[in-house]
Amino acid sequence: MGFNCGIIGLPNVGKSTLFNALTSTINAQAANYPFCTIEPNVGRVLVPDARLDTLQQIDKAQKIIPTQLEFVDIAGLVKGASKGEGLGNQFLGNIREVDALLHVLRCFEDGNITHVESTIDPIRDAETINTELMIADLESLEKRIVPIQKKAHGGDKEAIATLGVMEKVLDVLKEGQPARIVQFDDEADVKIAKSLCLLTTKPVLYICNVDEKSAGTGNEFSKKVFEFAEKEGNKALLISAEIEAELSVLEESDQKDYLEALGLKEKGLDRLIKTGYDLLGLITFFTSGPKEAHAWTLKKGSFAPQAAGVIHTDFEKGFIRAEVVSYEDYVTCNGETKAKELGKLRLEGKTYQILDGDVVHFLFNV
Predict the structure, then answer these.
(1) How far apart are CA 326 and CA 38, in angstroms?
(2) Would you say 30 and 20 are in contact if contact means Cβ atoms under 8 Å apart?
(3) Per-residue pLDDT tens for 236-282?
(4) What residues have CB less than 8 Å from 120, skipping those under 6 apart?
(5) Is the pTM of this model over 0.85?
(6) CA angle at residue 275 from 273 to 280, to 5 degrees?
(7) SS3 breakdown of the chain: % helix, strand, coil, rounded to 5?
(8) Residue 132 three-state SS
(9) 3-state SS record for 21-51
(10) Per-residue pLDDT tens over the stretch 284-320
(11) Chain centroid offset of residue 269 CA
């Protein structure tokens, strides 16, 4: 599967509590002291998708297989992490390995839970971590740029291209801005930028961890976070880790009653999973038949052979064509047979970009 979101934040903001609820495990030790998470914990969760149930009903599939998303609980960063403070560069390395960042911000008062800065200020906390990530990127590039400059001065074409990208990113970082705001028109430059593995190029979702009474409407803390995220061009999500932790130990039938009692329509974790999926720029396509209705994860904009490769590498190597029916047509026609009769099934080649919801059958030769 290979797509993951790293859960980051200062110590004691609710990261591990959220992770435990998210994965319904106790792998991440949630405790009231900083650095209770020493190693990043990893959990895979099912992405909710009601379309799978419909496909199962249509094809009378024996089972359904949802797509999954991976979440990594990364120990708390503190001011000075880029200089080795707290548990420092170990955590920066863990962040470097994930595809997107879920930045948990404490948006509740509770005298029983300590805060490393003694007071509650989610914007300050966000800026603290953002600054540490930018400093880490800045120092990383400044170390790596010297040998690249030497090669570029010697006429090395690859080094010249890399140097151009690095200089653009460095200029932005020196201005106190994240690397993700740098726009590259050339696809080759985009690839170079990705190869630099910078922390601040990763998409960010701010998670406002609020108390139970603020779970539906938010509070003054979360309001500031939403405004902050909008200015950055990022998104924010309202969630109560406390509520989600309580929901995670209830039976599904009881969860609905509990949510209704709180005046909530759906679990915050379901919204988080879906939003994380969107944050990574992912879509879902399906294969469906009597044996199983299966959801598959794919990067938006991927072509048919790449989608085939998600199922099996041999499918991509020997790709011939894809038989495609949109989800809407599949449901309207009550399956593939009628879709063929009504001309709703299309034969697509290597240049076809898979769309979200496509129900696909791949033809290949190995």
Answers:
(1) 45
(2) yes
(3) 999 999 998 898 888 888 988 999 888 888 888 888 888 888 888 99
(4) 106, 107, 108, 109, 221
(5) no
(6) 100
(7) 45, 20, 35
(8) helix
(9) HHHCCCCCCCCCCCCCCCCCEEEEEECCCHH
(10) 999 999 999 999 999 999 999 999 999 999 999 999 9
(11) 13
